[in-house]
Amino acid sequence: MVEDVFHGLDWVQSNIGAYGGDPENIFLLGQSAGAHLGMLSVLVNAVCYRNLKASKELNFVPNFKPSKIRAFVGISGPYDMIKFGPHFHERGLGPEILNSVFGCRSGASDKEINEHLQCLSPTKIFQSNLLPPGTVELIPPLIFCHGKVDKTVSYTSSEDLYAVCRDAKCKFVDLKLYDGKSHTDPIIEDPMLGNIDGRDKLIDDIMAAVQFFEVNQSPELT
């Protein structure tokens, strides 16, 4: 699925001009599983762009520079499959299903499963120093958004990733937490119901990031 994200980004970069868009101002945004896939895509692209050996091992050749993504916005994302595994199991996503979803080999030992899930967990990738030297500076600005009453994926998921990205000295990382918001409130209920003052906090935060990081405003990131 990460490869699908790459193909999508490659298509957008190649074709967005025909639709009035700017190939120099591409932003990547994902919610929930989309946030997880988006963040993995950002990391894999940076690793493969920097390290030819890793690119061959992963059988992926990046078609665009990491800097082409002006910023990544992750909303309500699960970024640590090992830490949140028990939580997902309690909510009906059993170990067999979760392991199958993430491509764990049938009959694999617990150690092998943990090692596999670690490589698919952005937070663990930073915590375990799995990024080759010179990769961090290729990672685009990161903004993590999360509702504080999210029962599907706890907001601590975004808090944890924010902390390790900050410790790794990523070029820019920010965390936006929304009081009283669930897993879907920011993307479904709030836009449908609207607010009395006509404002939407998540949309405001996303647009602020777009305006701040668009190429004409932040040439140092090109």
**Percent of sequence in beta strands:** 5-15%
Radius of gyration: 18 Å
- Unreliably modeled segments: 218-222
Order of helices and strands: HEHHEHHHHEHEHH
Total strands: the figure is: 4
Structural class of the secondary structure composition? alpha/beta
Give the neighbour order of strands across the main sheet. 1-2-3-4
Q: How many H/I helical runs?
A: 10
Oligomer state of the chains in this structure:
single chain
Helix content: 40-55%
Mean pLDDT equals 84
Query: How far is the first residue's CA from the last residue's CA?
Result: 27 Å
Q: What is the approximate shape?
A: globular
Largest sheet: 4 strands, parallel
Give structural notes.
With 222 residues, this protein is an alpha/beta fold. It has helices at 2-15, 33-50, 52-57, 85-90, 95-101, 110-118, 122-127, 156-167, 185-193, 201-213; strands at residues 26-31, 69-75, 142-147, 173-178. Helix 8 (156-167) links the parallel strand 3 (142-147) and strand 4. It is globular. The two termini are 27 Å apart.
Describe this structure in a few short sentences.
45% of the residues lie in helices and 11% in strands.
Write the layout of secondary structure elements.
Blueprint: H1 2-15, E1 26-31, H2 33-50, H3 52-57, E2 69-75, H4 85-90, H5 95-101, H6 110-118, H7 122-127, E3 142-147, H8 156-167, E4 173-178, H9 185-193, H10 201-213
Parallel strand pairs: 1-2, 2-3, 3-4
